[in-house]
């Protein structure tokens, strides 16, 4: 929500719309970065960790947001970027000034090779070498993302202390937890060894980054030790929740390390579903099998959509299937063992908006056009009503609303008890009311073609879940128990396309 008409959503706009979020029945909100930033990567390039960028408001606006959220029974998670800063951050400005100043090793600096080439072959996520030459120091600095996002040297204890001070600053302002961005990029190999080439996997390679195994530029063994320091700090405050973003080829092992026992983070999520081209029963069972209900093993978080990936309804089904598939997708998300993360507008059934090149803001999409699908298409304004600006608050928002999404505003769905919005509320309420669905162990997960069958148990309750992830009717022969919820015409004898049934069994 844009509260001041400048085309950009802001903190007062979030505060204004918090009742909608609370009415969903969710527990907390996660807000993407709102800190001072040149906005080269839309807030993920922080120039001041302790202040709000003026385009989003000010610290008083943030305090009011937290207070209102708490009044509504919501907790507030904020996004923290600890692997890198903006090149306009005062820490970097001091660090690049000389090789002798107090912050000379707060970032990752290295000499050129004898031939003047970069210190290693590492490639950046957004394309091109992960090293940029800086004439002030006569050295290269590391950046795993944009060249304007220099890599912090978290091997340095002073840098860790500074990051922990930032965490304490926001905890003392009342935040309830953190989503930590790109945490497996937080430390590098100090020897700067070259990454080996990646074997062919059959997928097209659109960036130099895709040609390497990321063995040395990320995923250093020292990261869990730093995470233990984060946990020691958050344990000083009551009920603080931490969840890490962990992507890459070694994500499962790293997520388990990052959430090990009671001395590390509370949860982590990867990209099992976010980058999946298709939602399949096999994918669901594989993902759940990575997080069995075992001692010390962390609690997973799941998302089908987020700010870095295309809308799921545009990835996973044909346009004519979207109404039924949206319900199936939401009920499945609520049925997985772990935290369920809903991306804004997912409760309305929003789809990916096609953004023309001249309206793109996403630096990755601009750099790799047209081979990278723009992330901007999933960051478009929320449609609140049928007005010209869809209720966003500005006649010329920073991105177009999208004609398809204009047809699904909150206002219209509020008045329709059969809407996806109403169903989302019901699915969340069902999850909260049933312990097996809320926190139960997965005691069975099997797949037969398009049929997904799960069993979950907790506190003496046993639930069985059957989802048809395909487009044809499937017969059911062994569906026992009392129906708890059915969707899209499901019965205990058959599942039409994209139908599902949840039954409660006798203990």
UniProtKB/TrEMBL annotation:
InterPro entries: GH, GH13_cat_dom, O16G_dom_2. This is DUF3459 domain-containing protein. It comes from the Bacteria. Gene3D superfamilies: Glycosidases, Oligo-1,6-glucosidase, Domain 2. It comes from Qipengyuania aurantiaca. Pfam families: Alpha-amylase (PF00128). Residues 1-379 form the Glycosyl hydrolase family 13 catalytic domain. Belongs to the glycosyl hydrolase 13 family.
